[in-house]
Amino acid sequence: MIKRFGRGFGLLLAAALCLYVYLGERAAGRARNTALGEGTAAGETGGRFPWLNDGLYHARANALFKSGVGRLGEVEERDADFRLAYRNYVRSLDLHPFSPTAHFDFGQLLQYLNALDFPAAERYFDEYRKAAALSGVDTLINFEVGKILLARWPSLSPGERRFVEDITRSLLSAGGPGREERLDLILSLWEINVRDTAVLEEILPPESDVLRRAAGFLGGKGIFPAARLGFLAEAEHLDFRRAVREAQAGLIASHAPRPDESIQHYRAARTLLEGIRFYQRLSPKTEPVPAEEYGKLAKAVHLGILKSRLAAGADLRAVHDDFRKALDAEDGVGAAAELESLFKSREMVEDRSRSGLLDIERLGVSMELAFKQNRFREVVQTGQTLRQNLLVVPDERRPWIGRMYELAGDACQRLDDLYESNAYYEKALEWGAEAAVVRIKLRRNYERLNMARDIIDLQKQIEAGLTPRETWLGDSIWMAGEAFSKDLVLDEKIYRLELEFSDAAAGPSILLSIVINGKILFEDFISSSVIDLEFPAALGRNTLNITPLNRFCRPIKMILIPAE
Question: The CATH number of the domain where 419 resides is what?
Fold first, then answer.
């Protein structure tokens, strides 16, 4: 009997609670939708509505606040709405003090009351702080609080400013969709209301994508260039450490073995490394990317990609570019010997029939590996084999043969057989090797052989193949944020780079960034119409990128002069 009575009472209580919730929500809905008037006055005291429904008071407070904002010019009506809104917010928070939205909305009202010199016991800042604390992971409320308080930065106390810094940093650290947009708005508010780079350093989380975007913002505005360089240098340091982790993950996956996963990690590491411009050169206060560790990691990554691709079943032609990158990165014989063993195990370095495209490719790999291990006589012997056989290859593969003849010429040069070296270099030119590079190597032989007359003619050919000393740019406009890119074919010397502009003195100063072969060379405001820089050129192809960061500019010409 008692059990049946208990169950019945429980059901009755549940039904009553459901009815209460239903009536409360219905009342709150009417409060949100009703026109403000006599119904509002009734709502102030609860009237016929459930007296414990905080949502009702919150909804009526919002409606009254909105009405007051819409009648700012009607002083009496405005003030009446704001007073009633205040009472309803207080009542709502008395009933539900843990509502983040109620605290946030109350903070907005208090902000208006503060501006209108209304007396209020509560402070808008305290309400915003409560809203942020109670919202937890609710990034929307945190974002709104951060925005509002950043806009009022000059009026905040030191303690209040520290709170804003903390909440903004936490917000940006959260990631997720829309973070870039949030960051852009925060940066804009910072520029308008704060303009203190120390504050910016505090609110930006140590994440490379955030730091790079902030650096891009500063560059686009042409403000605080030193802070921009510091952010970029810090981002690169973080990217380097991430590249280390990706390479380690690639190594673990390769041992599993999971070659596809290994390739993915190694390629991620390579992308990160290729994005490093060594901004530490221009911002020495930032922890640098260690050049020696960078070089070792780059070697390991290139080698890891090649090994993993071979393990995944890629053929020799497919891995050619990866093979070249791995070999070019190595300066010792150990890695080359390891690669040679790997290629031999896969029958990729043996020349069986000495005919056919595939055998030529294998022969080329053999020559590259032998040269890297200082087996120069073996390379020369392979070159002799090439000269003794009639080769028929597609036009697009002729530079491959040209490279093999160039290697034979390099090997003869190392063995001091200069006349034979010259013969191979001439064959290399016939087969489409990079002409400027091969002719510069020829010139070195001519100089050692005292072939003065030949040098004169050869130098003319070299000059014709190199990038002209003067390049006219007067018909172009370089837009802000868009890189002007140009491949320069140069001798292995120190070069002076002169850039002349027609509008350097007109309008805001031009913030110019110059990158050569993937490394930052210059970034600063242009103080005159001509800038003059020096850089060491690699033999052959060099890539130049010039980017005006904050405004468009009109270049006139570019001059390249070998330094004396």
Answer: 1.25.40.10
